[in-house]
Amino acid sequence: MEQKPLKDVSSEPQIVKATISLSGMTCASCVRTIEQALEKTSGVSVPSISVNLLTSNAILEFDKSKTSIEKIKMAICNSGYDVEDTNIKEEMPESNRPSSKNNTINITPTNAEVKSTVTKLSIYGMSCASCVNTIQQTVESLPGVIKANVNLLTSEASVRYNSSKIGARDIIKAIEEIGFEAHLLKKNSFNREGESNIRKRARAEQRKLLRRFILSSFFAVPTFIVAMIFMLALPETNRVRMAFEYQLVPGLEVATLILFILSTPVQFLLGYPFYVKGIRS
User: Fold this and answer.
1) From CA 86, how far away is CA 105, in angstroms rounded?
2) Which of 141, 246, 259, 270 has an alpha carbon 20 to 30 Å from 217's alpha carbon atom?
3) What residue stretches are annotated with the HMA domain (predicted)?
4) What is the pTM of this model?
5) From CA 217, how far away is CA 214, in angstroms rounded?
């Protein structure tokens, strides 16, 4: 009786689905950079790649016989971003697949990661990429800090440090010294109403900026009227313009004094956070 050849199991694709938690993403350009790095990695299924900026994670499928999770993590790190955590669900062939459960593999941390501590912080007052760079450079310059990643979109920072050399309070103090407000991020990311802390912080920051904008408008509108209409649009013989051009003392006109009074609160009261951050940085 003729014996059938055995099926080569090693040649079969071993599809694995991975969920990778990332840090360091701040905009859509970061998402595209990571996607391109994953697309160039051999064995990764390009249509399955999904990078989410809001949740800071990437979901993809890859062939374990052609690549490994370590190579994928290396590709992400080489593109300038960090991998915080990895979860893999291995999809077994139908012939060997259990009845209902997938085999889940958790990547164990390395020795360096075991000795270090990761702390999540909520940061208030960031407005641009310069703020992100300032905070990140300040925190990474602290003794004991291994890596810091600041996310402008979520107003959060992830700091990996040696807890025997520095503590979370020391990091918060360093951030506050350069003009920002920092708090420990609560483990529970939702409040009683189910509202995301990220959205709550964003709304609080928007309300603060809106109040500052409205107050500055009260000074900006009169400044525009005096400087652009009374002093430029009106003819030189107009009585209103002549009144504003009247010199209280040699070299000091009425209009100049009024503009100084109107612009000073905008510069030094409403705009003080920008000066504080700039000086401290």
Assistant:
1) 9
2) 246
3) 16-84, 117-183
4) 0.41
5) 5
